[in-house]
């Protein structure tokens, strides 16, 4: 089995690491850990069948004839931005720079609104920026 640095290097050039994500901040160094502490990514090993999952290959941007394709998998809208969305953006422009700020990463207000509507505990609701982020968060959950 490859160590984390080797896995990251192989993944970077597409040689292995099929379906695995390895977070490496600095490939040239390893930080000293306090005695008894381990990195969760070093101790969690995926089940063998996970390694057999074929990696996702994104769709092509252009057809064989060179004309651009409409990529629905990339959340592209072939019709452009709708009028109601444009109006909402225009209205938000003057609302305390709402469009130039990152949203709350914990989605506190959104989770509280969902919880209130459905009678749930906000701590049991997770929000993310699309399915990729939610899957990533789920995979990270066992490691803390």
UniProtKB/TrEMBL annotation:
Name the InterPro entries on file.
Aminotransferase_I/II_large, PyrdxlP-dep_Trfase, PyrdxlP-dep_Trfase_major, PyrdxlP-dep_Trfase_small
Annotated Aminotransferase class I/classII large domain ranges read 68-140
* Record's signal peptide: none
What are the protein's UniProt keywords?
A: Aminotransferase, Pyridoxal phosphate, Transferase
Q: Which GO terms describe its molecular function?
A: pyridoxal phosphate binding; transaminase activity
Q: Name one Pfam family in it.
A: Aminotran_1_2
Q: What does the record give as cofactor?
A: pyridoxal 5'-phosphate
**PANTHER family in the record:** HISTIDINOL-PHOSPHATE AMINOTRANSFERASE (PTHR42885:SF2), HISTIDINOL-PHOSPHATE AMINOTRANSFERASE-RELATED (PTHR42885)
This protein is called Aminotransferase class I/classII large domain-containing protein
């Amino acid at each position: 089995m490859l160590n984390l640095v080797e896995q990251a290097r192989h993944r970077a050039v597409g040689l292995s690491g099929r379906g695995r994500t390895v977070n490496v901040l600095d490939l040239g160094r390893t930080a000293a850990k306090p005695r008894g502490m381990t990195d969760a990514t070093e101790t969690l090993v995926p089940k063998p069948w996970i390694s057999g999952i074929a990696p996702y290959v994104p769709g092509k941007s252009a057809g064989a004839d060179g004309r651009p394709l409409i990529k629905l998998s990339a959340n592209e809208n072939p019709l452009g931005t709708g009028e109601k969305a444009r109006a909402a953006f225009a209205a938000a422009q003057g609302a305390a720079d709402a469009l130039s700020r990152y949203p709350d990463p914990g989605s506190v207000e959104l989770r509280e609104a969902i919880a209130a509507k459905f009678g749930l505990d906000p701590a049991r609701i997770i929000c993310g920026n699309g399915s990729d982020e939610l899957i990533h968060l789920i995979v990270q959950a066992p490691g803390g």
